[in-house]
Predict the structure.
Amino acid sequence: MSIATVNSPRFGALGVFAVAYLAFIYIPVLFLPLFSFNDSIYIAFPLKGFTLEWYGKMAESKGLITALENSLRLGGVVAVLSTVLGTLAAKAVTRYRLPGSGPTVAFIMLPLVIPGIIMGIALLVLASYLGLTLSLFTIGVGHLLITVPFSMLVMISRLEGFDKNLEEASSDLGENAWTTFWRVTFPLAIPGLIASLLLTFTISFDEFILAFFLAGTEVTLPIYIWSQLRFPAKLPAVLALGAVILASSFVVVTFAEWFRRRGVQIKTSSGV
Amino acid sequence: MAERVVAAPFTAPRPNLIARIRGLFIRSEPLRGYALLTPTLLVMVLALAVPLAILVAYSFWTQNYLTIDKTLTINNYAVIADKLMYQSLLWKSIKISGAVTLATVVLAYPMAYFIAFRVQKNKLVWLILITVPFWTSYLLRVFAWKIVLGYNGVINSGLMSLGFIDKPLEFLLYNPFAVVLTLAHAWAAFAILPIYVSLEKIDRSLIEAATDLGDGPVMRFFRVTLPLSLPGVIASSLLVFIPTVGDYVTPKLVGGTTGIMIGNIIQSMFGKANNWPLGAALSIYAMFAITILVCVFLWFTKSLRKNVA
């Protein structure tokens, strides 16, 4: 982004507000990487000096590495499953005129408007009712609940964007449903699929509210971070971890957005 | 799901029945649509509807030390109705979330407006800039405010090194205001995106028409832009309000004793206090209150839109 456009008179007071707003959302977050390089166990000004010690501590921590592996595995599985479910549902509501599709969609979107804590305890109660041991599996079910609606929203906006006639043309030309799917629907849906995979992965990777209730002995990264926040001595290593997550999210989100927009621009229809 | 439709030709031991089912599938759009929807609906029923039903059942049971007494009783709700603490805690949570929603939406609107109407090129860059901080760990984002507001935090140590104050200000952290500030920061992106989408969808010729018919910028905004962007404002409000009422992380990290919310009590019922039935009743009660408030809010905005139109 060029600063020159912001400063041009056309932007005026709104432009000033926008920059102040960006400062408001960025400055607190940027303290995480700043203090992760600070050579002091106390998180306070003035800064003492530059060190990479906390990054070393972070890499040595067995608990952290295990939690990271758990979160990556969980996020991967949740992303694939929720994208499959979200895509099927999105295809159903965008392709077919369904009686009662309004209430059905509303039901699938319900987790967006239920406080996370309530879904968390409801699933905990179900698990205990069925005698299930809490594990990554129970966390995964909780995460599916909140990622499927997001995946479906992304896929609806993608599938609405392309021409229904393409699929009909394919079947008219003699392809069966399976080859039509692989040769027409799938390639057109790819940008949406990638956006959905990345979005659902990130949601699962960062989710704490439900995971807190549904975790057994295998912890995810947010649960590990939560357990570390109580120990001041461990905090700098947690900040180092926060900085790493911030940097990698930046790469992933930029890539995802770029990919999604690129996909949308090809058809130029359907806004965001 | 496509395989469900094409599975028929490969398994043809009873051609009549299968051909009939296949014919039905090809003829009936709703059937094919619902076949595609089945797996998703199944997951949502098993992971949402069933657990919520059991949660409701739990709220009518009783905790007997380590066992659950499954005799139906409304005792838990009587306890909630009886103890003022639960009422005032829920009311306080609603007020905090209401303040968070108001602050988030009021701050987000001009930002969304700026991106939708003032930014000509690189809208994508602005959207990415706004989204990036929110894909970092939620816990660490909340924790960041502890760094900013804390006793040895950024504001205190900054003001002290500049000589404005002699000893740290203690009122910054551990109070409802810190909770509102932290949540308003944590949920900003959720408010901006829906408002941006609804602003972006507005047909620009409508705004030109208002100008041609003699409306100034202010009148034009209140008579055209704002009413047309109300769906986005409503969506943002709900997306921020509903999850924040039940949040227990932020109050626990930055709220102190005066900043605790209903989520903290519900959480403790499933943890230290170990009274699942009462916790279940509290969450049903909270969800009921939230639903009523949301309905009132939707009814209010609907009549508002009618009046404007």
